[in-house]
Write a structure and sequence with these properties.
The protein is an alpha/beta fold and 535 residues long. It folds into 3 domains: 230 residues, 2-enoyl-CoA Hydratase, Chain A, domain 1 (Alpha-Beta Complex), CATH 3.90.226; 204 residues, 2-enoyl-CoA Hydratase, Chain A, domain 1 (Alpha-Beta Complex), CATH 3.90.226.10; 38 residues, no CATH class. Helices cover 41% and strands 16% of the residues. It is built from 21 helices and 17 strands. The strands form 3 sheets. Strands 10, 11, 12, 13, 14, 15, 16 and 17 form an 8-stranded mixed β-sheet that branches. It has a 7-stranded mixed β-sheet with strand order 1-2-3-4-5-7-9, with helices on both faces. Strands 6-8 form a two-stranded parallel sheet. The longest helix is centred in the N-terminal third of the chain and has 22 residues. The radius of gyration is 29 Å and the shape is elongated. The termini are far apart. Keywords: Ligase.
Length: 535
């Protein structure tokens, strides 16, 4: 075969000193590129004046440098008519080297409103994300449905709702609210796994302040009606309050680092090396909890002594703080942590904390994260307000979440676990795999004082009638009840607790349990379509 490099035509071209001409750029392509540049310049002018970033600047914050690959750049636009594209940007990029899909609404184009072109782009992106099994992040900044397109715009919202439900529990979905999100549009983020808002500029409401005033006469600002703080601290709609856009997007990247790309993928693993300080940190666990079982302490200190490097990423930190949930790692393996917070209302369970815990456990179960439960609760919050708010229905959500979870479930009782709260907080009876208790822990139907007041009601009444020291008798009976009934020995004897461990052994015990349960498999126990969860 003749060497192609010696062919006369090729040899002549190589010997020629004339420069090789580059491929000519067609005028239409050059015009499109200029339109794109002009559109971004216009977006900067409009957004920066409001203290907000452009959609493309937000993408630069979200993705690893240079990894964003846009799809459908000019879809919905009109190049000949000098329109660079529609009001949403879609594409894929990398977060810590892992592929993630994104759609970012562009408020500089028709107020970021959603019409047919925008809906088509978003649905196409979600189909692709489900096909290649990667998370979806939505950067929301929109005036809602495009009024000019009428029912066609509403139809697109319906399609996005359907796609979001289809993707739920299959791929992680995170919504970052960086501007307005009103009307039916709020249900796009409401259906996702996480909603992240900023302290300023972001708001969500079904009906805005003007409609509220017209309908009810109430005058209220957008911030007070549906601002970032309101939805983080009061409604529980949002999961994190960013100080600004950069903080909100950084939290998004952090959450994605703990989650797998899909329910069919294992969670990521990280390198972990034990340090000299590990033993000292473990020893600290024995000093955190006070001897007085009524004295509060911060369960976050306990968590930070157990997890890798003391790093714990809270979820819904501002909502129902009597319960703590969030992500951490044990020997490089991501886990979900659920804990009662004795610093707030003694760690009691109420309607809000029940829903907070239930939703987080369901999230962990969907995406293959083991759940570590740290228990210190006196029970359910009493009162007519709780009963009328549906503590029966809403408290049952915790039961449903734990009973149906098939990821590794490891529970440690730190101090007290009474009544129904003991059962629902990851007890062995409800499906936990391994349960531990600290030596001073108390497990019973009721706390000692409450139990004595009920069991020995007649004895105390007779003592009062005889003129005896009722308080001294009550103290004696409480001491007897605690020694015979409230301690964890009965739970050990019946197999509800697998081992009594010293506080400094907690991290190693959890790590050993995770290694034991590393190959735990999901099983389908029935042929049902799905359960009917209390909602």
């Amino acid at each position: 075969m003749t060497d192609i490099m010696n062919a006369p035509d090729v040899k002549k071209a190589l010997e020629s000193s004339a420069p090789i001409e580059s491929q000519p750029i067609r005028p239409a392509i050059a015009h499109a590129a200029q339109l794109a540049r002009d559109a971004e310049n216009a977006a900067r002018t409009r957004q920066h004046g409001k203290g907000k970033r452009t959609a493309r600047e937000r993408l630069d914050l979200l993705f690893d440098t240079g990894s964003f690959q846009e799809i459908g750049r000019f879809s919905g636009g009109d190049i000949n008519g000098d329109r660079a594209g529609c009001a949403v940007i879609t594409g894929f990029g990398e977060v810590y080297g892992r592929k993630v899909a994104v759609y970012a609404q562009d408020f500089s184009v028709k107020g970021g409103t959603l019409g047919q072109a925008e809906g088509e782009k978003i649905c196409h992106l979600m189909d692709m994300a489900m096909s290649i099994k990667v998370p979806v992040v939505a950067l929301i900044d929109s005036g809602g449905a495009r009024i000019q397109e009428g029912v066609a715009a509403l139809t697109q919202y319906g399609r996005i709702f359907q796609k979001t439900c289809e993707a739920s529990g299959f791929i992680p979905q995170i919504s970052v609210i960086l501007g307005p999100c009103a009307g039916g549009a709020v249900y796009c983020p409401a259906l996702t796994d996480f909603i992240i808002m900023t302290r300023e500029n972001s708001n969500m409401f079904v009906t805005g302040p003007d409609v509220v005033k017209a309908a009810t006469g109430e005058a209220i600002s957008m911030e007070a009606l549906g601002g970032g703080y309101v939805h983080n601290a009061t409604s529980g709609v949002a999961h994190y309050l960013g100080e600004d856009e950069a903080d909100a997007i950084d939290y998004t990247r952090t959450v994605l680092a703990y989650l797998p790309s899909s329910s069919q993928s294992p969670a990521p693993r990280f390198a972990y090396s034990a340090t000299r300080s590990d033993r000292d940190i473990a020893q600290r666990l024995g000093t955190i909890i006070p001897d007085n079982d009524r004295q509060p302490y911060d369960v976050l200190e306990v968590i930070r002594c157990i997890v890798d490097y003391g790093e714990f990423v809270q979820v819904q930190e501002l909502y129902s703080p009597c319960a703590v949930v969030g992500f951490a790692c044990i020997e490089g393996r991501p886990v979900g942590v659920v804990a009662n917070q004795p610093n707030v209302l003694a760690g009691i369970l109420d309607v809000e904390s029940s829903e907070k815990i239930a939703r987080f456990v369901r999230l962990c179960d969907a995406f293959n994260l083991p759940v570590i439960t740290l228990v210190d609760t006196p029970g359910y919050k009493p009162g007519s307000d709780q009963e009328h708010a549906g503590i029966i229905r809403r408290g049952a959500k915790v039961i449903y979440a734990y009973a149906n979870a098939q990821v590794p479930l490891i529970t440690v009782i730190l101090r007290k676990a009474f009544g129904g709260a003991y059962i629902v907080m990851g007890s062995k009876a409800i499906g936990a795999d391994v349960n531990y208790a600290w030596p001073t822990s108390q497990i019973a139907v009721l706390g000692a004082q409450g139990a004595v007041n009920i069991i020995h009601r007649k004895d105390l009444q007779k003592a009062k009638e005889r003129g005896q020291d009722v308080d001294a008798l009550r103290s004696q009976l409480i001491e007897e009840y605690e020694s015979t009934t409230v301690n964890a020995n009965l739970s050990l004897e019946t197999g509800q607790i697998d081992a009594m461990i010293d506080p400094e052994q907690t991290r190693e015990a959890i790590a050993e349990s995770l290694r034991l349960l590393a190959n735990k498999k999901r099983t389908s126990r029935t042929g049902k379509h799905h359960g009917n969860q209390p909602l």
